[in-house]
Amino acid sequence: MKDGSNATGSAVSRLPAPVRARLVELKESLERALGDRLACLLVYGSAARGGYRDGQSDVDLMVVLEEASRESLDAIANALRLARYAARIEAMILTAAEIPQAADVFPLLYDDIRRCHVLLSGRDPFSALVIDGKNRRLRVEQELREAQIRLRRAVVDGMGSDDALRGAVLRKVKQIRGPLHALLGLRGVDGDDDLGTVLAGAGKLLGVDVAPLQRAREAPGAAYEALAELLARAVVDVDRLEHGEAAR
C-alpha cells in the first residue's frame, strides 16, 4: 500500500489482519476488473487517521473512475458488495473529472481526505486540489447548524431518557470533529485533527468548558449542556467570519 500525501500509512497497517486482507483482495479485484479505467483507490476517514475501532468503525474507501459508465459500475458491483459485508468497507465512487469541480460543495470532506489518506492504487487527485476559503466557511456553518438542529430533535425524541441523550451526545461529538477542526483552521489555530485535540482547541477558542464531554457516558445531562453551548458559540463565531469578524 502506498502512502498518499500527508497520509498515515501505518494506520492502515494497524487494521485487523482480516480487514487488511479484504482491502488487498478488493484492490486486486478492482484493478483486474477496470484496468486503466481505475484512476485512483484510497482509504480515508478513521482508518487513515488511526481512529478505527474494530467492530464499530467502517473503512471509508474512495474509488475514482475515469468515467462512471454502467459497464464500469457493473464490473465492480460484486467486489464492493463482498467487501462491504465482509469488512464494513464502504465505497464512495467518483470520477477523476468531477473531483476538482465538486471542491466547492465538499470542501471539508476534501480537506480531510487531502490531509490524511492512504493511496492504494493510481494517482493522487487531492494533493494539488485548491479549495476556496469562502466555501470552507459556508460548509462549516452548514454542518454546525445541522448538528445543532438534529441534537435538539434527538432530545425531543428521547423523551427524557438518559440512554437516548447519551447516545445522541456521543454521536454528535464525533460528527462535529470535522467542522470544528475546520473552524479552528479558519481562525488560525493549528493542531492535530484527533477528537480530543479538536474539542480542547474549540473549547479554548470559544470559551466553553468541554470537560463534561469526556464524561458523557457517566453524566449525559452535563455533557449535553456543554455540547449545546459549544455548538451555539461555534455557530455565532463562524457566522461572524462571513462579515470579517469573529466572536471574542
What is the succession of H and E elements? Answer: EHHEHEHEHHEHHHHH
Strand portion, in percent?
Answer: 5-15%
Total strand segments: 5
What is the straight-line distance between the termini? Answer: 45 Å
- In spatial order, strands of the major sheet run 1-5-2-3-4
Rg (CA only): 19 Å
Question: What is the compact description of this entry?
Answer:
This protein is an alpha+beta fold and 248 residues long. Helices cover 57% and strands 11% of the residues. Strands 1-5-2-3-4 form a 5-stranded mixed β-sheet.
How would you characterize this protein structure?
This protein is of the alpha+beta class and 248 residues long. It is globular and about 55 Å long. 35% of the residues are buried. It has helices spanning 9-13, 17-34, 46-49, 70-87, 98-101, 107-115, 133-158, 162-175, 177-186, 195-206, 220-241; strands spanning 2-3, 38-44, 59-65, 89-95, 118-122. The chain folds into two domains: 2-122, 2-Layer Sandwich (Beta Polymerase, domain 2), CATH 3.30.460; 133-241. The protein has eleven helices and five strands. Strands 1-5-2-3-4 form a five-stranded mixed β-sheet. Helix 2 (17-34) runs antiparallel to helix 4, helix 7 packs antiparallel against helix 8 (162-175) and helix 8 (162-175) packs parallel to helix 11. Residues 26-97 form the Polymerase nucleotidyl transferase domain. GO terms for molecular function: nucleotidyltransferase activity.
